[in-house]
Design a protein that fits this description.
Structural class: mainly alpha
Mean pLDDT: 88
Keywords: Membrane, Transmembrane, Transmembrane helix
Number of domains: 1
């Protein structure tokens, strides 16, 4: 039923919008409470987003030729 080689990539792709939303809200709260500076909040937010994109591409390329 499920093509196991694409499960990780599909899971990351489907969770991507909620990852953006939750990490943006989390960073906003941390910056407003002065736990993080605005710069570090932005850096951590972008790191989460780019790491998710990297993992999607990594899993897709890794499993591209598996049968």
């Amino acid at each position: 039923m499920w093509d196991k080689k694409w499960v990780k990539t599909t899971g990351l792709a489907l969770s991507y919008p909620s990852t953006i939303l939750i990490s943006a809200i989390g960073m906003k709260e941390l910056v407003e409470r002065n736990i993080l500076s605005k710069t570090w909040g932005t850096i951590i937010f972008l790191a989460i987003i780019f790491n998710t994109i990297y993992l999607m591409i990594y899993y897709a390329l890794k499993n591209k030729n598996k049968s």
